[in-house]
Amino acid sequence: MSTALSTTTAYARLEIRRTLRDQGFVISTLGVPVLMYLLFTNLGGQDDPAFRTGAMVGMAAYGALGAALSLGGGVAEDKSTGWLRQLRVTPMTPRRVVAGRALTGAVVVLPAITAVMLAGGLVNGVRMPPLQWVAVALALWLGSLPFTLLGLGNGYRLTPQATGAVNVACNLGLAVVGGLWFPVSLFPGWLAALSSWTPTHRFAEVGTALAGGDAPPAAALLVLAAWTALFGAYAAVSYRRSARTV
Question: What is the pLDDT of residues 104-121, one digit of tens each?
């Protein structure tokens, strides 16, 4: 294993352990989405299998969104405690630091996705062929990348307090407008049109299509790619800005 790869993965392992030991992270990204999913699908006699499957995808996406954004809080804390400054004097290059954080995001979103999908299959009786379960989980895992980049951008740019507030606003705003909590069919026309341009709506749309046995819509993939590029540029600019101030 090359030195660059070994140092990056070692850094990622450190950050993963730090994140998963955080009780607040576990409660907010695992407990809350699972609880909301079970409440939304079992109150009021909601027993439509299609509804339960769609809600499962939406809440798994919501859990992944929260987990991905939460990385920004850790980055902001690292700035305030001087950990980011310490990293700058180690052999870790800026590219390795960002790659390590992105790798951390790729790992910490998995428990949230898995927990909600387990609740769907074991509690709500959601049934799909094994390959569809894998396809949905993989799509939600890969599709969380733009939100990881958004969280990192916020963390590198803002103070810990501001990062927390902005991430909560992003989490709630993107979840509600993107249709992760409520079906977009219930939205007024103008809000439904706005929702179609959000990364969260397209994120869940890819998972819902795969859960139904269909291919992901090309428009959804294009919108997600555009948001990934935009948030990636935001994270890069924010990191360079932090280098001048930390």
Answer: 777 888 889 999 999 999
Query: HEC profile for the chain?
Result: CCHHHHHHHHHHHHHHHHHHCCHHHHHHHHHHHHHHHHHHHHCCCCCCHHHHHHHHHHHHHHHHHHHHHHHHHHHHHHHHHCHHHHHHCCCCCHHHHHHHHHHHHHHHHHHHHHHHHHHHHHCCCCCCCHHHHHHHHHHHHHHCHHHHHHHHHHHHHCCHHHHHHHHHHHHHHHHHHCCCCCCHHHCCHHHHHHHCCCHHHHHHHHHHHHHCCCCCCHHHHHHHHHHHHHHHHHHHHHHHHHHHHC
Measure the CA angle with vertex 44, ends 38 and 46; round to 5°: 65
Q: Domain map of the chain by residue range?
A: 3-245
pTM of the shown model: 0.86
